[in-house]
Automatic annotation (TrEMBL):
Residue stretches making up the Peptidase S24/S26A/S26B/S26C domain: 95-196
CDD domains, alphabetized: HTH_XRE, Peptidase_S24_S26
Highest taxon of the lineage: Bacteria
Protein name: Peptidase S24/S26A/S26B/S26C domain-containing protein
Organism: Silvanigrella paludirubra
Gene3D superfamilies: Umud Fragment, subunit A
Length: 217
């Protein structure tokens, strides 16, 4: 698997600049054989080289930050939402394994989203078994009060991920199923949350992608 910095550079080349590897190397004065070996996984892209390539792209006037190449945060010439609004992704075929993998790659490696697959019907009718939801790595200390009574994605102390409604009662934090009869454990009291996020992107098991929160990348 390519490292995430290289995946972002490749995504930038193919999806945003729409350049072949040969044209990309010619435009930004890079060694074609070197970049080919890196994209094929035969060589590792060191951070210093990644920053050098980013600098060359910046010098051509493209709004791209070192931070985005390294982490997925920061300035990028196009937002993940703009990508998702294209027919290539919003209408992708659920039965196509390659397309499903590429969608997850874009959202979790190119852009820094977290995702969870829904495996029960405890949050119907909003979420159904087979849906996929995406959020961001949110700081619990800043987001809990704001997200009270909302359906969230939360990673808790045992590294288990819940997609449930957040309830705060007398400073106690609970993750609650909307349909209490669809699960054996409908109310979970949480002592520690590692990260928490609203649902930003919802991919129904059969249906289009829904962008639920207009969050900047």
């Amino acid at each position: 698997m390519l490292n995430e910095s290289l995946e972002r550079l490749k995504f930038l080349r193919e999806e945003i600049l729409n350049l072949s590897l040969k044209d990309f190397c010619s435009k930004f004065s890079l060694s074609y054989s070197y970049m080919r070996n890196i994209e094929c996984g035969e060589k590792v892209l060191p951070k210093s080289k990644s920053l050098e390539i980013t600098k060359k792209i910046q010098n051509y006037g493209f709004n791209i930050s070192d931070e985005w190449i390294e982490t997925g945060y920061g300035s990028c010439p196009i937002s993940s939402f703009s990508i998702l609004k294209t027919n290539k992704y919003i209408n992708f075929d659920d039965t196509n394994t390659e397309q499903r993998h590429w969608l997850k790659t874009i959202l979790t490696r190119i852009f820094p989203y977290k995702y969870a697959c829904i495996s029960t019907n405890e949050m119907m009718p909003f979420l159904k078994n087979g849906d996929i939801v995406f959020g961001v790595n949110g700081d619990p200390s800043k987001n809990l009060e704001r997200l009270n009574n909302e359906i969230v994605i939360a990673r808790v102390e045992d590294n288990f991920t819940y997609v449930r409604r957040l309830r705060i009662v007398e400073n106690n934090v609970f993750l609650v199923a909307d349909n209490l009869d669809k699960t054996d454990d409908p109310v979970v009291k949480v002592n520690k949350i590692n990260w928490i996020s609203p649902i930003i992107i919802h991919k129904k098991h059969v249906g289009k992608i829904e962008i639920l929160e207009n969050q900047n990348d």
